[in-house]
Amino acid sequence: MRFSSTAFFFLAAVSSVIATTGDKCQVEIVRAVECDRKTRKGDQISLHYRGSLQDGGKQFDTSYDSGEPLSILVGQGSVIKGLDDNIIDMCIHEKRKIIIPPDFGYGSVAVGPIPASSTLIFEIELVGISGVESPKSIVEKSKSDASKATNAVKDAITSKISDAINAAKVLLSDSDSDGQEHNEL
C-alpha cells in the first residue's frame, strides 16, 4: 500500500509540472537574423505586429495597416506579458510568431474584439532598437541556436515526464493488494 500512496503523490506532482509547462507561450522564430546587439530589458524598440485569435484566426489588430511600427520599452509591462517576455534577445529584422495563452494575455477579461480567455497569436518583426544602428544588410540564419536548444530542452522534458509516468505505472502495478512489496532483482 505504501507504493500506491507514493505513486499517487508522484503522479500528482508530474501532472502539476505538465500543467505548468503546458501554459507557457510558444515562440517560433520565423526569420532568424545574425546580429551583434539583441534586445534587452529596458530597450526602447519599434516593431511591426499582427495580432489574431487562435480560435478562427480572426485578426484583431495590426501595425502594418498604418505603416507605423509600435514603439515600446522592453520588459516594462507596456504590452501584455506574453509579448513583453518574448521580445527579449531579438535582432533587428528578426521575425517571430508567438502563441500566447490567456494567462499571459488578457486572461478571463474581454478586451475590444478579443473574447475572454482567448489564446492569441502575434506575428512580430523587430524594426529597430533605439540607439542601435540598423544593419546595412540582413544576414539570415537557417535556424537559430536558441531555437535548436529550445527544441532539445522540450524533447528532454517530454522524455523525462514520460519516463516518470511509466515508473509510476510500474509502482502502481507492482503493489499487491495485501500490502506486501514487490522487489525486482
Automatic annotation (TrEMBL):
Gene3D superfamilies hit by this protein: 3.10.50.40
PROSITE patterns, per the entry: FKBP_PPIASE
GO MF entry, a single one: peptidyl-prolyl cis-trans isomerase activity
Keyword Isomerase: yes
Record's GO cellular component terms: endoplasmic reticulum
Protein EC: 5.2.1.8
Record domain PPIase FKBP-type: where: 42-130
Catalytic activity: [protein]-peptidylproline (omega=180) = [protein]-peptidylproline (omega=0)
Physiological role: PPIases accelerate the folding of proteins. It catalyzes the cis-trans isomerization of proline imidic peptide bonds in oligopeptides.
Protein name: peptidylprolyl isomerase
Lineage: Eukaryota, Fungi, Dikarya, Ascomycota, Pezizomycotina
